[in-house]
Amino acid sequence: MENIPPCPKCKCEHTYPMGDLINCPECFHEWNPNDVQEEAADGNQVLDSLGKVLQDGDSVVVIKDLPVKGAPKPVKAGTKVKNIRLVDGDHNIACKIDGFGSMGLKSEFVKKA
Predict the structure, then answer these.
(1) How many CA atoms lie within 13 A of 94 on its CB side?
(2) Which residues contact 43 (CB under 8 A, 6 or more apart)?
(3) Whole-angstrom Cα distance, residue 25 to residue 16?
């Protein structure tokens, strides 16, 4: 059995290859090990749910319904968010969503548009 790296997102040791990608059974993260090695050399970068690098000003799409404290309805899956800002902290994306206003999102719940 070859040496398969742990998940870069949750550090799970039980990853497995599927084609050119490596999959994590715990957080369902998929990534190309060659891309992760290049990104690790660049330093701390924010990755979306598919492992793509996010940058300030990117547009992203929410991949699941996200409940919002104090709001009667959640942010629906498929909502497009434009012009994001990357910030430090648990919610590493600062943005404005129509109908909700300014808020923070976690990068694991979005994909690059």
Answers:
(1) 6
(2) none
(3) 8
User: What DSSP letter does each residue of the chain carry, written as one string?
Assistant: ---PPPPTTT--S--EEETTEEE-TTT--EE-HHHHHHHHHH-S-EE-TTSPEE-TT--EEE-S-B--TT-SSPBPTT-EE-S-EE-SSSS-EEEEETTTEEEEE-GGGEEE-
Compute CA distances 63 → 25, 40, 79, whole Å.
18, 25, 8
CA angle at residue 90 from 83 to 100, to 5 degrees?
45
Residue type, 41: A
Q: How far apart are CA 65 and CA 77, in angstroms?
A: 5
- Tell me the C-alpha distance between 39 and 53, whole Å: 8
Sheet holding 93-97, edge to edge: 85-86, 93-97, 101-105
Per-residue model confidence as pLDDT tens digits over 59-80: 999 999 999 988 899 999 999 9
* pTM (two decimals): 0.61
